[in-house]
Design a protein that fits this description.
The chain has about 375 residues and is mainly alpha-helical. It is built from 16 helices and no strands. Belongs to the GSP F family.
Length: about 375
């Protein structure tokens, strides 16, 4: 056996080891990584389009992945395909990493001969989903920064500044303001008794968690959809989903079945089930979308015109681009509204501190000078 055969044999052995080690550890719940899904589907689509066999494409894509768990899963899929399984069957062995929507759409693509189209569509879907989620997270960074800064400032004032003010008041024989005295006594109590401090922090944490859960139970997702930006986000996700489905040319109802169990939002999951049920019962796509209550009048008008004209794919693509732009505008608008609010909160917090602790000191100093 020559050196090349030896290297090939050892390489296959490595793949078998990684595959079986993943299978043993697959009981551990892994979080779906949309960035990896976008990279895998996009790379497979491009390589497959170039005429390279799917087994070689999987091999090439696996080598480019940074995520060890996804790299090993592709080697596992490759081994299953070599044993006679299809691409979708291979992915279905790793359901913790690949959602049912991903697997189901690929299965339809294989059966209809449109594997490239569905892989490309999946890549676009996950790329867009990642982009919008990042925009929302970026919009929340500044408010969270201000909020955390206020908490840290409060801790600093209680532990460092107020005790120093107490010493100043004490040295001047001036009675400490009532509010300052209460906070100072609490600060001393916490410093002297770490057990009490820990118990208090733990208790308040539990109380806040319970209150947050109670509040979340009372505020249903249907109530949240009354907020413009939340409604726009859900509408965009749904339009993007239909844009991908129609662009691949696969059966809409069949594709929606796979979407039902793969949506992270229960609200959208229920809406997809409702839309699919209406389509199966014989209603048009526009009528089904209208009954769901997710889509705006503008979106429904575009879908109706495009559906009647037989250009539904282009309609959803246009809608996806338009709604993406509008959603970004709303995110920026809300950000511009939120920033001044948090700045005012920070300024009010500092002003309150000056009013309670600093101003009485100056008043007492002025009184002492007059005497």
């Amino acid at each position: 056996m020559n050196s090349n055969d030896s290297e090939s044999s050892s390489y296959r052995g490595f793949k078998n080891i990684t595959y079986f080690s993943l299978k043993k550890g697959i009981k551990i719940k892994h979080k779906v990584n949309e960035e990896q899904l976008a990279l895998i589907s996009g790379s497979l689509a491009q390589i497959y389009k170039d005429g390279i066999r799917i087994t070689e494409a999987l091999d090439l894509v696996a080598d480019t992945l940074q995520s060890k768990i996804y790299k090993e899963s592709l080697y596992g899929v490759l081994e299953l395909i070599k044993q006679g399984s299809s691409l979708s069957q291979g992915f279905s062995e790793f359901k913790d990493l690949y959602p049912e929507f991903f697997i189901g759409i690929i299965s339809i693509g294989e059966n209809t001969g449109k594997l490239y189209e569905v892989l490309k569509g999946l890549s676009i879907y996950y790329d867009k989903s990642i982009f919008i989620k990042k925009e929302i997270k970026n919009a929340c960074i500044y408010p969270m920064f201000v909020f955390i800064s206020m908490i840290l400032l409060s801790i600093f004032l209680v532990n460092e500044v107020i005790p120093n003010f107490f010493e100043i008041y004490k040295s001047m024989n001036i009675k400490l303001p009532k509010g300052c005295q209460v906070i100072y006594d609490m600060s001393i109590a916490f410093k002297d008794n770490h057990l009490v401090t820990g118990a208090a922090i733990f208790s308040w944490s539990v109380i806040l968690i319970i209150l947050a859960k109670c509040l979340s139970n009372q505020i249903s997702i249907n109530k949240l959809t009354k907020i413009s930006i939340v409604r726009s986000f859900f509408e965009y996700i749904m339009v993007l989903l239909f844009s991908i489905i129609t662009s691949t040319g696969i059966n809409i109802s069949q594709a929606l079945k796979y979407c039902e169990n793969s949506m992270s939002f229960m609200y959208l999951r229920n809406k997809i089930t409702e839309i699919n049920s209406n389509i199966i019962s014989g209603e048009t796509l526009t009528e089904s979308l209208e009954k769901s209550g997710v889509f705006s009048k503008y979106a429904l008008a575009i879908v109706r015109i495009r559906e009647e004209g037989g250009t539904i794919e282009e309609g959803f693509k246009e809608l996806a681009n338009t709604l993406e732009y509008r959603l970004n505008e709303k995110i920026q608008k809300y950000l511009k509204m939120i920033n001044p609010i948090f700045i005012i909160m920070m300024a009010s917090f500092i002003a309150l501190f000056l009013l309670i602790f600093v101003l009485p000191l100056f008043n007492n100093l002025q009184g002492g000078i007059r005497k």
